[in-house]
Amino acid sequence: MPKKETFDMMPTTVKLCRIVGFLDRDVAGDTRQRAVVVISGITVFMTIPNLIYLIRKEKSLERTFRVVIESIAMVSIVFRMMFHYINRDGMQACYDDVRSVFNEYVNSPVAEVQKTLKHLYKSAEFLVKFYLYGVMSQAVSFGLIQAVITTVKYFVNGHVEQFPAPVIEADHFFFAYDSSFWIWLPVMANALIWQYYLVVILMANECLHWNLLHHVSCLFKIMRLEILQANDVRDSSSFRAKIIRIIRIQNVCYKSAGHLEDSLSPVMVLLYCSCILQACIGMFVISVVNNFFLIAIMAFIFQYTTFQIFSFSMLSTELIEASVSLSDAVYSLEWYNRTLEEQKLLQFVHMRSQKMVAISAGKFFPMTRTTFAGAMRTVFSYYTLMRQFYDK
Question: How many CA atoms lie within 13 A of 336 on its CB side?
């Protein structure tokens, strides 16, 4: 069987990131202009008109809640993309460093290591493809179906009583998109185009972070295997070389986790706050209105924001558990039978591995399963208060 030269690390995710300009290594030219264009387009054509609508238009209670939810979501998404763009070089460095280490293991004779590499490739591909189909199908129901139904009604009946909003509620300030069909149609087409750009850039951002977190966690697990195998190395020089290699890879892990923390920490605060607000309002709207389309929008936003918090909490928990497992692995070695120099190397690895590696929310608290459960309790508490005030 021919030997591989490199590890094919999350190829579909990398393609998505290159399309929107979040990664550009191995590509001719700098692609960061693509990210600027996409983020600017989403801001100009979706976020700003939505905020203008929130400020200027008189709305019913149902529409008010819908526009508030949409505004929170759009502002949160734009800021998340901007943070990613600001930390783009850090994400590129994280990807390159992690991939370079996995390239060292691509022809490893250890069955457990090969199993981990196969798991990483399959899970990364499954994640992005499953997520792509799921989000795209929901995006189609969010705007395209309404656009097709309205267009058919217009050509069949010659008129439409009320034109639906172009994906999200919007006020274009200089003109009313619902004044005629031939104004509404290009506005809706433009909104759909930017909606799918939004889906692609969100997927690139989220899948890149999810996969990098999982890859760094698996790298810690491979290091744990390396440490446990060091027990079988009796030659002193070979043992020292193995531990020094482990220290070098440990440095890569901590450096990569630091890049992820820099990129995700401010985003997690924003995500937590927007999740609690959106979930509370969404649950309240679902419980008091009878508009099926509005309920569908609220349900979509609720499950999306909740899934975001849940996924990052689970991946951060995995990272914590994988990083601290090195300490137990070092302690389980027969360190007492080693020379003083070897013991010092092991002590260095042990001391460093006692430092918890995690993704935090604005440096305030680490993202874990416990903090996710706390966020959900907060959502239900605020929802109960809102419902009590409404009933009175």
Answer: 2
pLDDT in tens, 210-268: 889 999 988 888 888 888 887 777 777 887 888 888 888 888 888 888 888 888 888 88
Matching residue, tokens 């419980």: 287
Cα 147-141-208 angle, rounded to 5 deg: 120
Residues in the chain: 392
Q: What is the mean pLDDT of the chain?
A: 80
| Spatial contact of 253 and 348, defined as CB atoms under 8 Å apart | no
- CA 313 to CA 266: how far, in whole Å? 15
Of 195, 204, 193, 191, which Cα lies nearest the Cα of 85? 204
Please report which confidence band the pLDDT of residue 61 belongs to, taking 50, 70 and 90 as the band edges. low
pLDDT digits (tens, 9 = 90+) for 48-59: 887 887 777 666
Contact between residue 312 and residue 268 where contact means Cβ atoms under 8 Å apart: yes
What digits encode the pLDDT tens for the residues 327-375?
888 887 777 777 788 778 878 877 877 777 888 888 888 888 888 888 8
Amino acid at 147: A
**Cβ-proximal residues to 50 (8 Å cutoff; 6+ apart), any chain:** 67, 70, 71, 74, 168, 169, 170
User: Rounded to an integer, what distance in angstroms lies between the CA atom of residue 133 and that of residue 147?
Assistant: 20
User: Three-state DSSP class for 377?
Assistant: helix
Distance of CA 59 to the CA centre of its chain: 33
**E strand or H helix that includes residue 192:** helix 181-229
Alpha-carbon distances of 368 from 71, 172, 208, rounded to whole Å: 28, 42, 19
String of DSSP letters for 311-375: HHHHHHHHHHHHHHHHHHHHHTS-GGGS-HHHHHHHHHHHHHHTS----BSTTSSB--HHHHHHH
Q: Are 268 and 78 in contact (CB under 8 A)?
A: no
DSSP string, 230-275: GGG--SHHHHHHHHHHHHHHHHHHHHHHHHHHHHHHHHHHHHHHHH
Element (H, E) at 155: helix 145-157
